[in-house]
Design goal:
It is built from 16 helices and 13 strands. By secondary structure, it is an alpha/beta fold.
Length: about 375
Amino acid sequence: MSANERELARRLVAEIAHLAQQERFRFMEVCGGHTHTIYRYGIPSLLPANVEFVHGPGCPVCVIPMGRVDDAIALATEEAITLCCFGDLLRVPGGRGSLMEARAEGADVRIVYSPLDALALAEREPERQVVFLAVGFETTAPATALTVLRAAARRIANFSVLCNHVTIEEPLRALLGAPGVALDGLIGPGHVAVVTGAAAFGFIPAEFSLPIVVSGFEPNDLLESVAMLLRQHRFGQCLAENQYRRAVSDAGNLAAQAVIAKVFTRRERFAWRGLGEIERSAYGLREEFSRFDAEVRYGVPGVSVPDPRACRCGEVLRGARKPWQCGVFGTACTPERPIGTCMVSSEGACAAYYHYGRLGDSGLQPARVR
């Protein structure tokens, strides 16, 4: 941090302490990227004890249920198929193991950095069928959509997508509408809002009487967002505000929204880890692009697989439990041998706690900061 950034942080911390006084506040950071910033920089240690962060369902890998991982494994083990995915998907556990284990047993699973890498592979190896395992919220859906359009324009016949793109509004509605939710505000996902726009979160104060502040990802962004939420409470407001104005507009990225609408349609239902099935909460390819839909081209098992009993990822994603309150956290479940997705994903709350030594009252020794 520069001297100016440190001074701003000191001012924000002092303002938060003044605004919070003795009242207890629980703020949910929706995005896993925010969780990692919060614990990497030790932000909770700067704030009064009565200001608490809880974690939400904004980690795109964490919310994918085990059955969808099994679908990917089923495709990867087909002799003529190459399955491409991002690196943090390799260790995600399904009911049949993980993609890393499938690769060790001979499946052709390759790491890519974008869907265009998978498309380029399909062009280089026309004798192989290349399937891209697509995950992510509205942030990454445009890249997949553009790749499908490029595949159509180039008439590439050996490329398809196993689509697991999800939306942010519907799971937040399901979470906030559930009984027993005790929150005082939300820190909105900045990367998603770049696409959707900050105004897309207006339903939260309008329907659930909770303030939300769309935030950037630097430490001072998070501190300022907390201060903005507390100001709303102190001045009797309930608004959707935008702290991340350097990247997020009210309307969002209209071109990205248009390409999503052109390629994708909403699935009737989609299963979420920890939240169950939620209507119209995920994308599928439109009928005119069905030749690029791996589920249509090959079929997948589509079997619902329950989470392991020992894993509490679902409760962590709902803000109902902290990672260290899971009995296997840091012992049977580690990033190297994860039981749940929250430990393996680069945006998972359990991974954040583990890597940055924020083990709360678990009684474990802090892990080495990496």
